[in-house]
TrEMBL record:
The gene coding this protein: NDA2_1
Pfam families named among the record's database cross-references: NDH2_C, Pyr_redox_2
Keyword Transit peptide applies: yes
Highest taxon of the lineage: Eukaryota
Protein name, as recorded: NADH:ubiquinone reductase (non-electrogenic)
Cell compartments where the protein resides: Mitochondrion inner membrane; Peroxisome
Primary location group: mitochondrion
Keyword Iron-sulfur: no
Listed CDD domains: EFh
Catalytic activity annotation: a ubiquinone + NADH + H(+) = a ubiquinol + NAD(+); a quinone + NADH + H(+) = a quinol + NAD(+)
Family the entry assigns: Belongs to the NADH dehydrogenase family.
Native organism: Datura stramonium (Jimsonweed)
Signal sequence interval, chain numbering: none
Sequence ranges assigned to domain EF-hand in this UniProt record: 382-417
Membrane topology recorded in Swiss-Prot or TrEMBL: Peripheral membrane protein
Length: 584
């Protein structure tokens, strides 16, 4: 009895003091060596949220919609205690989505990639509360969001309520884009949520169990074991690789009689898979899949998905063919959620695909509403739209002409406000503005040479051609969440002392520096303990060493030491015992 009490006390101590859990993990990983570790942050318990509501009325109320990468990064980095934060999401956890393909085949367990959102907010210095509900309407005029709870109370249906806000942070993410192709919604599996990965895992085992029944014909058995993945992007490619490894390393030992009937097909509408990667990675991935027996069909556009057959159209020849399948996974892109579409129509953005924000992540036309992650895109202002204002701001003596020296004085502000200028100079291998003026006026340009407004326009006429939208990735959403939290942390200070670039169309400076995305690289796991890595500086690595780099990065990017320990232990378990193929 005393032993049980000691164990309970030991467990409670670690739950109440997360820093001890970190120390235990570091101690274990270090092989029992001496480790010094300090925990800087104090844990705050927000369990008495109701008692604090009255005390928090004087605080600015921030409502956060969503608990994905953008919303969670914002919450983790928000440190100013002057805010009262209300988190609203139908999902009461954060999911590490890059590992969802690993969940589909049992390489990692679903519980290992999720962290309860209440675990995250209870450690904050900020007063933060969570409600499990879905936003159904945004009312910017009255500063309200209308929500519907996913939980039925006393059998009276789902409750609806309204929430006031001073600042609204929209981080609802996106939904799967089916492109209105018949049968996709009804007959395919998506891979965007943890529940999707769990369904795929159960269905894969279902297919093998059904194919093992003695009453099935060979034709039906081959159909059941034909797995089709639609979409040759990183998610589709990684799932195909995970499924291949699962079948060849684990399934064949358990279902030896049906192993020869398994077929994996990857469909891609463009000419190559992994189009966003370096051509060397694309070529290696296609070659490796060919060696592994994965049938890669490029230039194949899905036009219809039936219950047992999927129809594709050859992009070049226009021929339509059908193939039987047992399970199909749809991984082709994202679309806007209905509540965001309605909000866009309300604020005059109904003709856009996603919410448009400025470079500070504010929804265009809305001073107190921010949008980040997959539901929004930055509408970078073009230089040529402001060319007259830029010229006037740089022309300090109002002479009607600019010297190279005058332009050089505002170049840093121009490059910060309009990043396409810096990108254009970099792509043209130009070190400064003098080189740009040389290209426009010819050689021999000196600092004393003056240019008028027309020559100025000519010099900058091409800089907007290199503008690109940011990709809808976890990396972008995470960096946006961190950036916005830092802005909120310094809101009051920057109101008094703005730190951003010059306002070319106004007076003074912008409050904050605009958001800048820093690309840290991308991975494409290809199976067989091989991964392709494309890192900054056009550095490409493919093979087993990149796989270990992938393990290190994904372990370090977990949002808590709990999930980090669980994920690493799952990898170790898989190496020793293989993947679990049981149906639970």
């Amino acid at each position: 009895m005393q032993r049980v009490t000691v164990i309970e006390r030991f467990s409670k101590t670690f739950r109440d003091n997360p820093s001890l859990s970190k120390l235990l993990i570091v101690f274990t990983v270090s092989g029992g060596g001496l480790v010094a570790y300090s925990e800087a942050e104090k844990s705050y318990d927000n369990s008495n949220a109701g008692e604090l509501v009255e005390a928090n009325k004087r605080k600015k109320k921030v409502v956060v919609l969503g608990t994905g990468w953008a919303g969670t990064s914002f919450l983790k980095n928000l440190k100013d205690p002057s805010y009262d934060v209300q988190v609203i999401s139908p999902r009461n956890y954060f999911a590490f989505t890059p590992l969802l393909p690993s969940v589909t085949c049992g390489t990692v367990e679903s519980r290992s990639v999720v962290e309860p959102i209440r675990n995250i907010i209870r450690k904050k210095h900020v007063d933060a509360y969570y409600w499990e509900a879905e936003c159904i309407k945004i009312d910017p005029e009255n500063k309200k969001v209308y929500c519907r709870s996913n939980l039925s109370i006393n059998g009276n249906g789902k409750e609806e309520f309204a929430v006031d806000y001073d600042y609204l942070v929209i981080a609802t993410g996106a939904r799967v884009n089916t492109f209105n192709i018949p049968g996709v919604e009804e007959n395919t599996f998506f891979l965007k949520e943890v529940e999707d990965a769990q369904k795929i895992r159960r269905t894969v085992i279902d297919c093998f169990e059904k194919a093992s029944l003695p009453t099935l014909s060979d034709e039906e058995r081959k159909r059941l074991l034909h797995f089709v993945i639609v979409g040759g992007g990183p998610t589709g490619v990684e799932f195909a690789a995970q499924l291949h490894d699962f079948v060849n390393e684990d399934i064949v030992r358990l279902y030896p009689k049906v192993k020869d009937s398994v077929k994996i097909t990857l469909l891609e509408a463009t000419d190559h898979i992994l189009n966003m990667f370096d051509k060397r990675i694309t070529a290696f991935a296609e070659e490796k899949f060919h060696r592994d027996g994965i049938d890669v069909k490029t230039g194949s556009m899905v036009v219809k998905v039936g219950e047992k057959e999927i129809s594709t159209k050859d992009v070049k020849r226009g021929e339509i063919t059908s193939m039987p399948y047992g399970m199909a996974v749809w991984s082709t892109g994202i679309g806007t959620r209905p509540v965001i579409m309605e909000f866009m129509k309300h604020i005059g953005q109904g003709n856009r695909r996603v919410l448009a924000t400025d470079e500070w992540l504010r929804v265009e036309g809305q001073d107190n509403i921010y949008a980040l992650g997959d539901c929004a895109t930055i509408n970078q202002r073009k230089v040529m739209e402001d060319i007259a204002a830029i010229f006037h701001k740089a022309d300090k003596d109002n002479s009607g002409t600019l010297t190279v020296k005058e332009f050089q004085e505002v170049l840093n502000d121009i490059c910060e406000r309009y990043p396409q200028v810096e990108l254009y100079l970099k792509n043209k291998k130009m070190s400064n503005l003098v080189d740009l003026l040389k290209e426009s006026k010819g050689d021999g340009v000196k600092e004393s040479v003056e240019v008028d407004i027309e020559e100025f326009k000519s010099a900058l006429s091409q800089v907007d051609t290199d503008m690109k939208n940011l990709p809808a990735t976890a990396q972008v959403a995470s960096q946006q969440g961190v950036y916005l939290a830092k802005c909120f942390n310094r809101m009051e200070e920057c109101e008094k002392n703005p730190e951003g670039p010059l306002r070319f169309r106004g007076e003074g400076r912008h409050r904050f520096h605009p958001f800048r995305y820093r690309h840290l690289g991308q991975f494409a796991p290809l199976g067989g303990e091989q991964t392709a890595a494309q890192l900054p500086g056009d550095w490409v690595s493919i093979g087993h060493s990149s796989q270990w780099l992938w393990y290190s990065v994904y372990a370090s990017k977990q949002v808590s030491w709990r999930t980090r320990a669980l994920v690493v232990s799952d990898w170790v378990r898989r190496f020793i015992f293989g993947r679990d193929s049981s149906q639970i």
